[in-house]
Amino acid sequence: MYAFEYQRAGSVAEAASLLAKNPEAKLLAGGQTFIPTLKARLAQPSHVVDIGRLKELAGIEVKGNVVSIGAMTRHAEVAASADVKKAIPALADLAIEIGDQQVRNRGTLGGSVANNDPAADYPSAVLALGATIVTNQREIASGDFFQGMFSTALQDGEIIVRIVFPMPKRAAYSKFHHPASGYAMAGVFVADTANGVRVAVTGAGSSGVFLWKAAEAALTKTFAAASLDGIAVDEGECIADLHAGADYRAHLVGVMAKRAIKKITG
Amino acid sequence: MQPSRREDLRLIAGHGRYSSDWNLPNQLHASVLRSTHAAARIARIDTAPALAAPGVKAVLTHLDVERAGYKSIVGGVATKDKNGELMKKPFYPILATDRVCHVGQAVAFVVAETPEQAQDAVDLIEVEYEESPAIVTFADARAPGAPAVHADIPGNLSFVHEHGDEAKTAAAFAGAKFVTKVRVDSQRLICNPMEPRACLASFDAATGRYLLHAASQGLIAPRVHLQQITGVPATDIDLIVEDVGGSFGIRSSPYPEYMLSMLASKTLGVPVKWTGSRTDTFLSDYHGRALSLTGEVALDDKGNILAFRWEDEIDLGAYAGPFGAFIGTQNVSIMCGGVYRVPSVFVRSCLAYTNTTPVSSYRGAGRPDIAYAIERLIDQAAQEHGFDNLELRRRNFITPAEMPHTTAAGQTYDCGDFPAVLEHALKTVDWSGFPARRTQSEKRGKLRGIGLASYIEAAAAGAQPKDQTAARVAADGTITIYCMAGGSGQGHETTFVSVFAGVLDVAPDAIQYRASDPAFAMIGNGTGGSRTAAGQGSSFTLLAQALLAKARPHAAKALGVAEVSYAKGVFSGGGKSITLKDLARQVAPADAGTHPFDSEAEGSYGATYPNGCHIAEIEIDPDTGVTDLLRYVAVDDLGNILQPMIVEGQVHGGVAQGWGQMFGEHAVYDRESGQFLTASFMDYPMPRAGWLPNSGHFDRVPHPVPTKKNLLGAKGVGESGCSGSLPALMNAMMHAVRPAGVKELQMPVTPAVLWRALRDARAKAA
Amino acid sequence: MNKIEFTINGKKVATQVEGRTLLVNLIRDELKLTGTHVGCDTSQCGCCTIHLDGKSVKSCAMLAAQADGANIVTIEGMADGDKLHPVQQAFTECHGLQCGFCTPGMIMTAASILKDHPQPTEEQIVKGLEGNLCRCTGYINIIKSVHRAAELMKA
Predict the structure, then answer these.
(1) Is the pLDDT of residue B592 over 80?
(2) What does the pLDDT look like over B263-304, one tens digit per residue?
(3) Is the ipTM of this structure higher than 0.95?
(4) Which residue, of A97, A266, B275, B336, is most buried by count of CB atoms within 10 Å of its CB?
């Protein structure tokens, strides 16, 4: 790790001002991706601003037909939350599939979404459920938020405060774990929402999380796994690496989508 | 409470002492600059910016190593080829000289006050590399016009080893009714003990001696190698090792950081500590396997084996590592007939250099590879020529009546009952019930397969001429026993003490084992080749007998009789008795000098031939290519079993490593750039919890046929799990996918690989 | 430098750390509690698992400064004097360790599994161990150890 100055912010406002003061400062949330990145010397921040324990960024709240989750809520809390399990069980099912027990005890929703790793799980739920990303400056619709691998609509100094998930009519997540890293090799979040059926795919797309429009159209007609027969994501849009070809990932997306649908339809 | 193993109490409490747990006052910390190129000339190294960095005390390069007179890292074999030539072996530098030959090769060694300062300074060293083309596979290394890894080694060919009778074998093939040929790749692996390497060296100027803490499998080979490299007499190197977090073959010889820490400590006058990372493990621990074997079998019309013929391709990596060439010559050839009556064999192994990390022993070191190849070949031959795969084995097994049996490859198997072991395994797994189980799987849309392997391996005779042991008796009557074999999970403390206490017929409480004591300057083998319990254990039997022989006259004197009898730790005579322990206290010298019962013993114990039949039953999800290992049966003839729990653990671990090689592990280099692509746990899939069947579906059944080649009747166990599992798993895999049209697979059969094979087979059929 | 205070194995510690000091390095190098191990650089292996405010975490993926105010338990704090923690006892009973390097992390993780699931299923154990690597045992006896620990804790 390169040397840096550690600062613990007492509030979101203080964190924002620390970021503003130091252009090379970086936020530290749960640190489960960021700290290994620092250890590998792949980042060299001047300052690390810790927002991990800010009370104003924590907690899960169900209000009407939305679930609002603070950005620093740990994956384990989402996975174990009775409120989440009742309101959007698929979200709790997703959270339990992230990393491992120890990672889930530290890693946060906000950290995962802000990082937008193309193989992270949460972006698929945010996109499929049409969640709203609330920052210290504004509200961003999920459709505008993800802008390709590791890239988001967040501006310098902008901090995710909470994410507001509308409750779907029904939803499910199915994931194929990368055999080494445990990240998604293909993860599909299927949601039947007030705004129609949405199918978000993570782990497979070479531009990060995306909505699988053809599947959405087919499922809108008939919400059944068989509706996806003969439909496939474009291999050309999928990641190919030494672990798996684009063809395999494209195929897995179909399999995981069907499995997610079967979780819903039984 | 009583722990299962004597080593457990400290390990479960966090009180084990591994390499990086050692510290000394005033120690400095080191970090290594490693090559980022697979093949390059080093035009310039500028260490000045690093030397000027905060806390930095020294930056060593090859110039410092040369100035110190340090020589090549030790490796290779001394055998000659059929033209009488030795293997071509480049100088293997501790730090790269004017060129680098693989990614991760050590280039410079920075010593600073803190580990962070050392790491920061590594980044400041300026190295100008002039890149040249790299080759990372055997085939590319041997292709016409391939770039030379070492300018003076044409065709990158180090050695051609031949074994067996070429003409007789060719004649057998000429007269054969059936011939089957199979190529198997045993891909390059990372051994990955959970403990990354670390060392702490301290030079004492007053005595001229070095203290070295570094993970090691034994106490002789590393010190002898250190002597050959550094010129420091082995007797001046106190290698102190307590706990070792796994070794699996790659920690039997010293690595560059150990010599560099010694040199830096001598130069700077303070102890120097280096703590490696997992990245260091991936890049610079010796790699495993990296060979391909092409086998042919010749059969007569009834299915009698007439001959085996082998063409082996051995990737040594960039240099001759400690055991790479030994694996590629001796270990893949001496067992190349397996458990079968084979009149004639011939092996030709080509050993080549590539721009990759050098290869050395990894659990089995060539023995699992040849066992895998033989058992694939037998299954394939049965398949191709319409034989039942069990009948073909039964027909050709060497039977107990034929023991001892000298094979065409020159090994003499002393004992074993291969036919009975096979039947035992078939019964355990309910082989005949498989078709019904397959039907059940098919109903669920799954492919099911069952495969078996009748393996045999040669557990090593050992590189040292004998195994010496010693006992030192303290004034309070407690006994410490010593030998040169260091443990790394095998439970030496438990097994050796149990053997020794067993002969004395006393409770083991007052006896402890220590891996060596440099002051004794004993000789004996390090841990390796699955021979330690049988070899050293036998010497401990002799040691206990020697101690009793020494104690007996003292007992007679103490009891005032001419003759004493001994049982359960008690000498008796003339109606009186005294315990061995009380006697030891009574006769202890007042000045804590040599105790009269202090004893030494030694013995030489040759190879044993552990064998067995492993059966795997798998189920494949064709939608994802994921394979589930539903059931595993390991019926092993390991001779007499000394510690059933430990033996079971060894089998579990060996099978798990076989599972890893079969289904996922692969050290991959980029063919163009020579970059190492799988250098972390993020890209190198390690077996995880739940991937093997649980204890209810994993049957480990002993079928002992005790050997007379050592005093305990024990055969080796440590590596048998790999030798049995690779062929059993692949035979099960082929059995499952053959009906779907898949004709060939190579390890690792990852979900992606398997899915594609099934898809391609479907496309071909359509 | 950052001033931090925390409790470790029941003892209060006050010290100063660099921003980049990892919690595991503080525990091992300064506090000399070397039972917590470092097995990788990518927080995959779990050898460094400790309990932080009652939850299992990887101490190699935390800055020491983040532990300010925390209550930490390491492997050295699991036994009650000479009395082993039931998970420790189960690991030796079931031969759930060979080289022992992964063992402290395994024991800390197993204790967390049993906190969440006092009578765990096989699946819950396997799921709970997904962040811990072992190269020696094939995990069979580790899983057995967790089952056994549940029995011991129930008794």
Answers:
(1) no
(2) 999 999 999 999 999 999 999 999 999 999 999 999 999 999
(3) yes
(4) B336
Chain C 4-33, residues with CB within 8 Å of chain A CB atoms = 18-20, 22
**B150-203 pLDDT per residue, tens:** 999 999 999 999 999 999 999 999 999 999 999 999 999 999 999 999 999 999
B463 φ/ψ angles, rounded to the nearest 5 degrees: -85, -25
Q: Is C123 on the interface with A (CB under 8 A)?
A: no
What CATH number should be reported for the domain holding residue C29? 3.10.20.30
Which among C44, C76, C108 is the end of a domain? C76
Look at residue B758 and tell me if it is in a domain.
yes
Chain B residues within an 8 Å CB radius of A255: 623-624
Chain centroid, CA C59 distance in Å = 9
- CB B615 within 8 Å of CB B728: yes
CATH number of the domain that C139 lies in? 1.10.150.120
Q: Does C112 touch chain A (CB under 8 A)?
A: yes
Any idea which fold A170-265 has?
Enolase-like; domain 1 (3.30.390)
Minimal C-alpha gap between A4 and chain C (Å): 6
Q: Which long-range contacts (CB under 8 A, 24 or more apart) does B54-57 make?
A: B54/B117, B54/B120, B55/B112, B55/B113, B55/B114, B55/B117, B55/B118, B55/B121, B56/B110, B56/B111, B56/B112, B56/B117, B56/B118, B56/B121, B57/B28, B57/B111, B57/B112, B57/B113, B57/B268
Residue B2 has pLDDT above 90, yes or no: no
Fold of A58-166: 3.30.465
From the first residue on, what is the mean pLDDT of each consecutive set of 10 residues in chain A (266 residues)?
96 97 97 96 97 97 97 98 98 98 98 96 98 98 95 96 98 97 97 97 96 98 97 95 95 98 96
Contact B229, B74 (CB under 8 A): yes
Question: Domain check: are B569 and B632 in the same one?
Answer: no
Pairwise pLDDT comparison (B429 vs B520), residue with the higher score = B429
Half-sphere exposure at residue B326, Cβ-oriented, CA atoms within 13 angstroms: 18
Where are chain A's structural domains?
5-50, 58-166, 170-265
Beta-bridged to residue B511, according to DSSP, are: B479
CA distance linking residue B671 with residue B461, whole number of Å: 39
Domain range for C15 is 2-76
CB B543 within 8 A of CB B481: yes
pLDDT at B696: 87
Structure token pair of residue C121: 């299923």
Structure tokens at B483: 């030998």
